[in-house]
Specification:
Layout lengths: L9 H20 L3 H21 L5 H16 L7 H21 L9 H21 L5 H20 L4 H8 L22 H15 L4 H4 L9 H27 L3 H28 L10 H22 L2 H13 L3 H15 L1 H13 L4 H15 L4
Helix pairs in contact: 1-2, 1-3, 2-3, 2-7, 3-4, 3-5, 4-5, 4-6, 5-6, 8-10, 8-11, 10-11, 11-12, 11-13, 12-13, 13-14, 13-16, 14-15, 15-16
Length: 383
């Protein structure tokens, strides 16, 4: 598919990060602190991707990354949560001090407006460090910033650190919340007829023993005209799901991409069940034809592309959800590889915390449906 040939570029990621920063500012004005924190975390992720994609050092992304970290350290609980404040502020100071140290050399491509922001931010960081650490002089504060730069900056610029940074940014907002209309599940943004079809027909027929699905689905009709009608709806649903998947991948939203892929896999299982029902009415094999093997291979390759990219940028929630999808559809080798990577990078306790966060704060309806597979996957040790 053409969108698989798309390669991330530094300018695209920086523009997306800038848009997330503007969203953060709007959320703060509206008093939506959790959404502002989520937007700040997105700024960090996209700036890291921009820096990774740069063929040369990218001063604009460095300044924006530092701004997101320093601002996040003071937002929410601020200094009243010393661990969170120190974690974020030290990393923001490390990045802005790296930029400041090189601003006349490698980072000379910083735009003038961002250069002014960066220099002002560096001065504020020096003053805050001197005050918060009770340092007697500016040189002492700068010496501490030197140590931050040397020990922290490289890791902060890397996507591998995103999971830990995001967790700290959102720590003040980690209490479970009920889902509201202002933050709909992604499936609820589908065309109504597509979402109704997925929720009331596909789940029940693909997984007839799932009590959660049975509670809110209607009895599936099995007469031939109804089956052909469902075939048409399935084709429309597949097209919409693929469109949403392309959008999610375009924006490097791998968790959402895994959600749409999960629906595509479930839809495919439903289509297989539909073929079995059709064969009862049409034993000679006439009727709607589904190229199931071709579709299956295409979806499997899309899944592999998505989890490889998610793992590359450190989107471990997406990786864990991919492991659940692999477990449900018997892709055991991939499941073990994904869980081994997560355990190696995060550790058992961090993986367990992420599982709890996904269960308590799902972004998609299908994540609630798949949480048993996720927990089951984690409880089985990779071989």
């Amino acid at each position: 598919m053409p969108f698989l040939r798309w390669l991330p570029k530094s300018e695209r990621f920086f523009n997306q990060a800038s848009e997330q920063w503007r969203r953060r500012q709007r959320f703060l004005l509206q008093g939506e602190e959790k959404r502002a924190a989520e937007a700040a975390a997105e700024v960090v992720r996209l700036c890291q991707l921009a820096l990774s994609a740069s063929e040369r050092n990218n001063g604009d992304s460095c300044v924006l990354l530092a701004n997101a970290l320093l601002s996040a350290s003071s937002a929410g609980p601020g200094p009243s949560d010393p661990e969170r404040y120190e974690f974020l502020h030290a990393r923001g100071a490390a990045v802005i001090h790296l930029w400041y140290s090189l601003r006349h050399e490698a980072w000379a491509n910083t735009k003038s407006a961002n250069r002014a922001i960066g220099e002002r931010m560096w001065r504020i960081a020096v003053d805050e460090i001197a005050h918060s650490r009770s340092l007697s002089s500016e040189p002492a504060a700068i010496a501490l910033m030197d140590s931050y730069r040397d020990s922290l900056a490289a890791s902060v610029l890397s996507e591998a650190s995103f999971a830990d940074i995001r967790g700290m940014i959102l720590r003040a907002h980690s209490a479970p919340e009920s889902h509201t209309e202002e933050q709909p599940f992604w499936e609820e943004t589908l065309p109504p007829e597509v979402w109704a079809f997925l929720a009331t027909v596909v789940i029940k027929r693909a997984f007839p023993n799932e009590s959660e699905a049975n509670d809110k689905t209607t009895d599936a009709l099995t007469d031939l005209p109804q089956l052909w009608k469902e075939s048409g709806l399935a084709l429309a649903a597949e097209g919409e799901l693929l469109r949403r998947l392309r959008q999610a991948l375009h924006h490097s939203d791998f968790r959402q991409a895994i959600g749409w892929l999960t629906w595509l896999f479930i839809l495919e299982l439903y289509e297989y069940q539909l073929e079995l029902l059709e064969s009862r009415w049409l034993p000679d094999g006439h009727g709607p034809v589904h190229s199931r093997e071709k579709i299956t291979e295409g979806h499997v390759q899309l899944l592999r592309f998505t989890w490889v990219e998610a793992r590359r940028v450190g989107d471990w929630n997406a990786v864990l959800l991919a492991a659940a999808l692999c477990d449900r559809f018997a892709l055991s080798d991939w499941r073990e590889e994904l869980l081994r990577s997560a355990r190696t990078q995060l550790g058992e306790q961090a993986v367990a915390r992420r599982l709890q966060d996904i269960e308590q704060n799902p972004q998609m309806v299908v994540e609630r449906f798949m949480h048993r597979e996720l927990r089951g996957s984690l409880e089985r040790k990779p071989s």
